[in-house]
Amino acid sequence: MKVRGTKLTSDEFHNKVIAVKHAPEIEYDWATGVAISKFLKGLKDGKIIGVYCDSCDRTVTPPRMFCEECFSPMSKYVDLPDTGIINTFSIAYIKTDASRVEKPQLPAVIDIDGTSISPSGFLHLLDEINPDDIKIGMKVKAVWKDAIDRTGAITDIKYFKKMEDA
Amino acid sequence: MTKKVGMVSVGLTQFQRRAKETGKELAYYSAKMALDEAGITRKDVDGVIIGSAPDAFDGVHQKHEYLTDGSGGFNLPTMRGYVGGGTGVFSPIQGWYSIASGVNDVVLVTTEEKMSSVQPSSQAAFLTIFDNMIERPLGPNLVWIFALEMRRYMEKHGIPKEHIASVSVKNKGNAIDHPSAMLGKKWTLDEVLNSELLADPVRLLDISPVADGAVSFVMMSEEKIKEFGISKDDVAWVDGVGWNVDTTMWTNRDLYYPKYVEKAAKQAYNMAGMKDHSPEALRKWLTFAEPYDPFNYKELHHLEGLQLFGKGKAPKAAFEGVTARDGDFPVTPSGGLLGVGNPIAAAAGMKSAELYLQLTGKAGKRQIDGRDMERGVAQAWGDLMQVGTVLVMKGGRIE
Ligand SMILES: [Zn+2]
User: Would you tell me how many other CB atoms lie within 10 Å of the CB of residue B278?
Assistant: First the structure.
C-alpha cells in the first residue's frame, strides 16, 4: 500500500516554506444565562449555589435551568457549603500553551458537599498542600478572594485546600 | 427495511507532524486513493461525507466548505459530521445511513485533520472546547482532563501504571508495520514509565502525537457492489453501528467508566443481532478490536466500555499479552493513535480503515494470522469526554 504526503521538518516549516500568518483578534462577551449567572453571583457573595430537582429529588451543582435527566424546569436554588471531597486530581507541569511550569498546577474535580449525586461539583485548583500528599477522597475547603476583589467568576475561589480538622 | 451496506476500499495519507500539503490536498490524496482502489471514479459517486474536528486547528471556519473539493463533494449531496475525536468512526456510520436509507448508493467518505497550522501548539486551540464560563478562566488544557480521568480509573480499580504503560509498548510497536505511521518504534516498558512527566499520572509516551493526515472510504449498497462486479473478498459489510453522547457536565459524572461507550456498543451489537453482551461471548464473536487510544489508558477504558473485558479487567489482560496482535484477542493491530499518529478525525478514520484492511486480508505485515477474520469493532471517543461511536464490520464472505 503506497500512501502519499510530504513531510516538512520544523526548520523547513518555520523558515523555508512560504507561510501565510494570521493571528485573529476576536472578543466575546457571554451572557451567563439564567442558572450560571446565579452561580456566579453566589461566588461573588462567597457562596456555592446548587439547584434542586423536585421530580428527581436531587441537588446538583453547577446549577442548571432544567434537569437534564427528567427535562423539568429547575428553579429551587440552594446554598451549599464551600467544602467537598477530591473526586480526582492531577499534578500538572504543562500549561494551556503546552509550555512547562516549575511549580505544578493542581487541577481537581471537587465533589461539593450537600449534593445528592456523586460526583456533583466542578473543576478547580488545589493549593497549600504538598502534591505528594493529595489523595482522592480528601476533604477540602474553598479559599476565597477578599470580598472586595470578587467579581462573580469561578476564580473568586482562589483554590481549595485540605480541611484542617479532616 | 434498510439496505445492506459494504465498504469496498480505503485510502490513507502519510500521517506526520507537519505536512507540506493543505488539508484539502491531503483529503484529495486519500479520496483519490480510495476511488482508485475501488476501481471507480468521482462520476460514480452520488453522496459525500466529510469528517473533520475543531475548526480552531485549521483557523478556517466551517472548513467543510474548504474541504469539499478535496473530498470530491462539489455538486453532490455532501454533509459534514463532527463529534470531536469520535468523528472518524461517526463518518463511516453516516456513510452507512445515507446508503441504508436509500438516499445514496455510492458514497465517498473522507476524514481529515491538519493540526500543525495552529501556533505554537494545538493546546491553545483545545482550550476552546472547555466550558466558557466556569472552566476556561482556570486555564485548563487537554492533558489535564485525561490525567483526571486516568487517575480516577486507576484509583477505582487499583490499576498499576505498568499495566497501562504496556499499551504504549504494544501499539507503538504494532505501528512499525503501518505505512502511514509517524511513530512506530519498539519502546521498553521502562522507557514509557520514565518518559517526561506532563500531568501526573500522564507521561509523554502515554500520549499520541498530534498530526496531519486524511483517510477515506468508498461505501456502497449491495446492489451497486454487484453491479460494479466487486468481489466479496474486497468487501467488509457494515454489521452494526451505534453512537451515544453523555451530558457535557463531565464534573457530574464518574469518569472511571464510559457509560456512553457501553450504550453505543450495545446499540451496535444489537443491530448486528448479537444479544449476548458478556465479554467472553463478545470476544468469541469478534475477531479483533480497534478501540480509540489517544492515551494508553483510553484503550483499556474503552475495551471495558465496549464490554470486551469486565470493569477493571482490561489492564491486566493487556499486560499479559492477551491483546497483542498474535494474542488471544488482538487489539489495535494497526498501531493506533499512539503509534500511527493522531490527526483527530483521520485518526479514528484510520481505525475504521483497519477494520476493512484486516477483514479483507489486505493489512500486509500487520495482518492478524492464524484465524478466520470474521468480524471487528472500531470505536472512537470525543467531544468533552462524552461521546462514543461504534462500528462493527464483518468480512465479505461472512453471511
Ligand atoms: Zn429531574
Answer: 10
Q: Considering only the C-alpha atoms of chain B, give the largest distance between any 2 of them, rounded to a whole number of Å.
A: 58
Amino acid at B16: Q
Q: Which of A120, A124, A118, A116 is nearest to A140 (CA)?
A: A124
Contact A121, A61 (CB under 8 A): yes
Mean pLDDT computed over A144-150: 98
Cβ contacts (< 8 Å) between B198 and chain A: which residues?
Answer: 92-94
Burial class of B327 by CB neighbour count within 10 A (0 to 12, 13 to 18, 19+): middle
Chosen from A8, A41, A69, A90 to mutate, greatest number of chain B CBs within 10 A: A90
Is this complex scored with an ipTM above 0.85? Answer: yes
Q: Does residue B142 carry a pLDDT above 90?
A: no
Question: Is A83 near chain B, with CB under 8 Å?
Answer: no
Closest-CA residue to B181 (of B192, B173, B170): B173
Give me the residue spans of the domains in chain A.
33-162
Backbone phi, then psi, for B352, in 5-degree steps? -65, -40
Mean pLDDT of B311-331: 98
Q: How far is B213 from chain A (nearest CA, A)?
A: 8
pTM over 0.90: yes
Mean pLDDT calculated for residue range B50-67:
89
Domains of chain B: 5-118+210-233 (3.40.47.10)
